[in-house]
Amino acid sequence: MRIGVFICHCGSNIAGTVDCESVAELASGFPEVVYSTDSMYTCSEPGQEGIITAIHEQKLDGVVVASCTPRMHEPTFRRAVERAGLNRYMFEMANIREHVSWIGKDKEHNTNKAADLVLMAVEKLRRNRPLVPKSFETIKRVLVIGGGVAGIQAALDCADGGLDVVMVERDQSIGGKMAKLDKTFPTIDCSSCVLGPKMVDIAQHEKITLHTCAEIEAVSGYVGNFSVTIRRRATYVDWTKCTGCGVCTEKCPSKRSPDVFNEFMGTTTAINIPFPQAIPKKAAINPATCTMIQKGKCGVCAKVCPVGCIDYEQQDELINVDVGAIVVATGYDLFDWHKYPQYGEGRYPDVITSLQYERLLSASGPTGGHIKRPSDGKEPKNVVFIQCVGSRDRSVDRPYCSGFCCMYTAKQAILTKDHIPDSQSYVFYMDIRAPGKGYDEFTRRAMEEYGAQYVRGRVAMIYPHGEQLMVRGADTLAGTQVEVPADLVVLATGVEAAQGAVKLGETLRVVPDQYGFFVESHPKLKPVETNTAGVYLAGACQGPKDIPTSVGQGSAAAAKALGLLSKERLESDPAVSKVNLSRCVGCQKCIGTCPFGAIKAITDRQGKLKAEVIETVCQGCGICTVTCPQGAIQLEHFTDNQILAEVNALCPPKMNASFE
Amino acid sequence: MSQLEELKAAIRGHLDSLDCVIGWEQGYDPLHATPLFIRNESDLERLSISPLAVHNPATYATGFAGKKIGMVVRGCHSRSIIELLNEKLIERENVVLFGLCCDGVVSQRKIRTALPADPGFVEAVEIGDDALHITLAGEKTTIKLQDVLADKCRICAYPDPLLADVLIGNKHDSRPEETLACQEAFEAKPNAEKFTFWQDTMSRCIRCYACRNVCPMCVCQDYCIAASRDPLWMSQENSPAENFMFQMIHVSHLTGRCTECGECERACPVDIPLMLLRRYMNKQVQEVFGHQAGTSLDKTPPLLTFQVEEARIKERDW
Fold it and tell me: Are residues A217 and A233 in contact, defined by beta-carbon separation less than 8 angstroms?
């Protein structure tokens, strides 16, 4: 082989603590290295041209670049060697930035280590062989998980772009958290007025199939060819017949169901349509509170239903769909503020969450849009808002900022003044975080035009004081303790990962971070991609986000899905497992360990059992290769021999022991 | 009827429907047994089930693939069979198990130490209830069975076969899991001492692969990684490092699969205490996965499955 080695300075990133010229010089003595040089920025255009020229002039058939992590520029350099006519797998990368220069200061040691890493790459490259990808067809259909505003946007954009869309929503209606909001900052426009039409578009778009009351049961397959099983919970109502007339909900005698849509501010009927603008506008029975399902007596809804759509025997239904891409838009849930003893742990009915307050403000809410406090229905005059409840607090393992609470608290203070002109709002805050377009002006308006009293400090305790609650806290700007009598206390409850996100992540092979938010492929450059090809993220499932950002990300995820599926065929990574049939003894251990079901048993011509890898399903994880006792199954591009060569380059085997 | 006669009768009843029944017979002298492959009535007469009959018949099971065979199994042997069944390496309908409730077998190594050095030809061995009476050059030596019992039998928790179609003998009361004192003593040693020990011990290894060939769980046949140049995990160089590497490969291939039948250690011609490695690995598997190989049907060894979340390994809760 004729190997060329290129050592990158990465400006001063590498050259600052690694003697790149020495590394290049050392590398020229490595086996089969015929050309070795260093350059300022190997990834730059002149840097890449340098590689290409060297390949032509030196007749190289393999290239090693020592620079940054392969996650950064391996695709770049692979393309470069391919432009020069080499197979893209005849390229190896040694990471001397993240693994050397950024983590060590000692130049001599760094230089030696960099040379070792280059030697490892050379030894591996000597055992590389050209690999050619296979291509396969893609399914022009997208699965959108979650029907909040991010999912809705992603679904509409995909559908408008010509793809079939399957939307799966856990709740009875789409709309997500935004549907529960009264008004939205910073324009104070009606939330359901801007979201409603989009929800209707979902229902009416001919390319969108909507499954609500449904969750993802299983996902198999790979980018372009996912196979998804959806579990649709029994609603006990035949939705093909239900017209959403609402007669059943009026007549239902069981009114003990928790009102989920209204954030548990009261109860509702066992058969219910969550809100007037619900999509789909269909009734569903809560089996836990329905007397017919629980005790077998009642049946009122079945009697009054004009179309006879009630079915008490309905079962969960499993739906299978094949899709080419998946957009995850599962949103967020609210922090459980009962963990805080200082806010009464739920003992005081007039301490409510911000989302509950939204329902009180909303005309479609339990109070018809009149602010009435839960304890006695009176109109509150003094409303105290407490920010950062479950945000920026290490003591409850929520060190992150939920991002949009400052803004909605300002909005709620403004709306309070609008609803009750003689009211006074107080806001306990830590810092005001309003870095969006028109956001800071908005919080200023809450203070200056609407007279909200902002108190910088934390609340120490809330205790009952006659009909009121007394909120005691610190005013850190004045350096005093303050006590504010409150008729109603609203907690700006922080954001946490949606319930079940971790489990869904496992199904989708998308990694959640320590708080349950899904991890994007790159925090800056790949914000909607995940490390599983063909699975994209939109909205707050990736981290706290306000509406405009969620919508933007929904569109971004849709653009990614459209881009992916605009290709007629996709190429599969040839770095997958391969069975050496003559070594395989058919013990089938690999089949049991493959997490992707990518290995099947076959019988050869002599009728002997053998294993076979389904190339497009294999993800190249390598579990089978470490399972196979006789080394018959090998991961292409990462064979045992290649890895052993790297190890031996680093720790040369001692041959002396037996010749003592 | 003695247990042997009872067993012979049981085998006789199945002999027509089986290609072969594996048991034991006297070997090259009365002190040593050897596996017996019973194919007809006359073979059956040579059957012996004395404590000298130590070989694990499960070792031969995979070699009879596609044939119907019978096997005389002790408790530990039945565990090997169960493990092979669980790994789908043999089929239940193809094996008939004649189970022996076992009181333990001897260790030839211990007998060798108990006898005078270079004892010559063994003329006769009489097996009593608790002693062996060995005649050497006309002279009778008595060795207590208890003194020459194999290590694995001293701590055996499964003396009765866990799986058998015919069960011969009286069942034992259940026994607790025990550890050998020598095992504990070795594990307690400092690493440097263990390192020196293995360096010394492995320099004895002649890489005859008897340990591998006798292992009922080694099913790679002629494709053992130790004899492969592609992938080239180890050379044929006979150095302590390469020898130890081979043993490490063997023990890791047995992770969650080793049934502690002790055949590897028994077969080793240079007395390498291989069970030290096996027992240690089994202990780890027991702690991490709660798995004990070959103790129940339909349990896959933990490293031969894939689970996103292992019940006992908390990846997120540290």
Answer: no
Band (A655; pLDDT cuts 50, 70, 90): low
B315 touches chain A (CB under 8 A): no
If we measure between CA atoms, which residue out of B143, B145, B136, B121 comes closest to residue B50? B145
Give me the residue from B88, B306, B309 closest to A588, CB to CB: B88
Contact A499, A483 (CB under 8 A): no
> Across the interface, which of B239, B241, B303 has its CB nearest the CB of A627?
B303
Long-range contacts of residues A12-16, Cβ cutoff 8 Å, at least 24 apart: A13/A68, A13/A97, A13/A101, A13/A102, A14/A67, A14/A96, A14/A97, A14/A100, A14/A101, A14/A114, A15/A101, A16/A101
- Please give the class, per CATH, of domain A334-496: alpha beta
* Nearest residue of A to residue B229, measured between CA atoms: A641
**Interface list for B 62-101 with A (CB within 8 A):** 87-89
| B317: confidence class by pLDDT, cuts 50, 70, 90 | low
Task: Give the pLDDT confidence of A441-460 residue by residue, as tens digits.
Answer: 999 999 999 999 999 999 99
Type of residue found at A220: S
A632 contact residues in B (CB cutoff 8 A): 223
Separation of alpha carbons A37 and A47, rounded Å: 11
CATH class label, A577-636 = alpha beta
Domain locations in chain B as residue ranges: 1-114+153-178, 179-318
Q: Which of B292 and B318 is assigned the larger pLDDT? A: B292
Domain chopping of chain A, boundaries: 3-125, 141-233+316-331+498-565, 247-304, 334-496, 577-636
Q: Selecting from 1.20.1250, 3.40.50, 2.40.10, 1.10.287, what CATH number does the domain A3-125 have? A: 3.40.50
CATH of domain A141-233+316-331+498-565: 3.50.50.60
CB B233 within 8 A of CB A631: yes
Secondary structure letter of residue A527 according to DSSP:
S
Checking if the pLDDT of B308 tops 50, the result is yes
pLDDT of B313 reads 82
Q: How confident is the model at residue A625 (pLDDT cuts 50, 70, 90)?
A: very high
Q: What's the pTM value of the predicted model, to 2 decimals?
A: 0.73
| DSSP assigned state of A126 | T
Residue A657 pLDDT > 80:
no
In this structure, chain B runs to a length of 318
Sign of CA dihedral A305, A306, A308, A314: negative
User: Chain B contact for A240, CB < 8 A?
Assistant: no
Residue A134: its pLDDT value, please? Answer: 87
Beta carbons within 8 Å of A506's beta carbon, 6+ residues apart:
B308, B309
Chain A residue numbers touching B316 (CB-CB < 8 A):
502, 514
ipTM of the complex: 0.87
- Residues B274-301: what's their mean pLDDT? 94
CA distance A222 to chain B (A): 17
